[in-house]
Specification:
This protein is of the alpha/beta class. It is built from 4 helices and 12 strands, in the order ααβαββββββββαβββ. A hairpin with a 5-residue loop joins strand 8 and strand 9. Helix 2 runs parallel beside helix 3. The relative contact order is 0.17.
């Protein structure tokens, strides 16, 4: 399906419905199972990617219903990676996102997501690997996010690259978040891979 201006409202409505259904499924996951699956995902990241000292990686501070990123953050710190977390830039036009070095000083944004304080930032182009939260995904690397569009705007520059796909964009998800196919909108930025508790799924750009 080709998305045209006339079909955009239909796409938005379909994504909203799918997003709601998948979020219900995530919320139904018992805490103990969430913790166990998050550990498995971190282990699969290590098996597939082998994090290296000095890598500049970005991850996310998970909301209670999202796959927990703490096991992966602990692993990355143990491997000697330089870790950055996203922070919504209230001063930027178009609702921008910054990546700030992880540190103990944090605050909750208006969405309830923990954000790092401080001013030690890195440009999105200079990250080596970015681990993204998601609500749904397909095998081509299309990502259904929460609807804010922050990651698509932060990495929009990747849409115009034909060979060099840095940084690598890797989604973290439960396997049940995979869907048959998502319709691509003009602003969507493809992921290189998605890692679930079952292993890694290499996407079309990966």
């Amino acid at each position: 399906m080709r998305v045209t201006p006339s079909s955009l409202p239909e796409l938005v409505a379909a994504r909203k419905k799918l997003r709601a259904a998948l979020r219900v499924r995530r919320r139904q996951l018992p805490p103990a199972e969430r913790a166990a699956l998050s550990q498995l995902v971190a282990r699969n990241v290590d098996r597939w990617l082998r994090l290296r000292p000095g890598w500049r990686i970005a991850a996310y501070a998970a909301l209670p219903e999202e796959l927990d990123s703490r096991p992966l953050l602990d692993l990355a710190a143990h491997r000697g990676c330089r870790i950055y977390l996203p922070r919504i830039d209230r001063q930027a036009l178009g609702r921008g996102m910054q990546f700030i070095a992880m540190n103990p000083r944090q605050r909750a944004n208006r969405l309830g997501i923990a954000e790092p304080e401080g001013s030690l930032a890195i440009g999105a182009r200079w990250l080596d690997v970015v681990f993204l939260p998601l609500v749904g995904f397909d095998a081509r690397g299309l990502r259904l996010g929460s609807g804010g569009g922050y990651y698509d705007r932060a990495f929009a520059f990747r849409r115009w690259r034909t060979a060099w796909h840095a940084p690598r964009l890797i989604g973290l998800a439960y396997s049940f978040q995979q869907v048959d196919a998502l319709v691509r909108a003009a602003h969507d930025v493809l992921m290189d891979a998605v890692i679930t508790e079952k292993g890694a799924i290499r996407c079309s750009t990966g």
